[in-house]
User: Fold this.
Amino acid sequence: MNKSKFSGLKAIYVNCTLKKSPRVSNTRGLANVSISIMEKEGVDVETIRLIDHVVPHGEEADMTEHAEEKDEWPELFKRIIQADILVVATPIWLGELSSVARKFIERLDAMSEKQNDKGQTIYYGKVGACIVTGNEDGIKNCGKGILFSLQHIGYTIPPQASTGWIGKAGPGPSYLDEESESADHEFTNKTITFLTYNLMHLASYLKEKDGYPSYGNSEEKWNEGERWKFEKPDH
Assistant:
């Protein structure tokens, strides 16, 4: 079998379910569809169920001094930042992303002051997407919040970078329940496939190009006084 063009990429899926292991996570169930595609294409895939770890709320890189328990975030971040691809997977609660997903994004943002060797934010050259599940409306609402946050801190977002599954509005079967018939949902199956391949295409391209050139976007150079072709408005 020929080696896939995506071999050598690393992806990490962060499941922001509110259910601790070993409880069944429907969000992980949908994420597994994308994970399976990546693994078949030779991508090295890792997963984190964030709620299984001690990750306090906070704006510092390590909140150990301010929390009752040791902050596991610094060790988790080492795994996250090594990945070329980040997928945030969340259930819907009251039309919004989960509280775990919100905390995860806040902790990512707290690390955005770190820079790569070009003086850019540390997330430059990495790509991101999101997967959403639930039995109420909110897929696009969750997607716009997650994807905006990821691009704001430096991740690159490919086309069609969000997907999801919801049942009928109100109480009802979840994604992994047989009566949901989710495995045959054409829209979800199509969009999660497109999302996965677009992530791999973009991550492969950026890795080949060694991310973005630093001309015009280096925090380090800006702080040193470089302004490229920018001129302060005269008013």
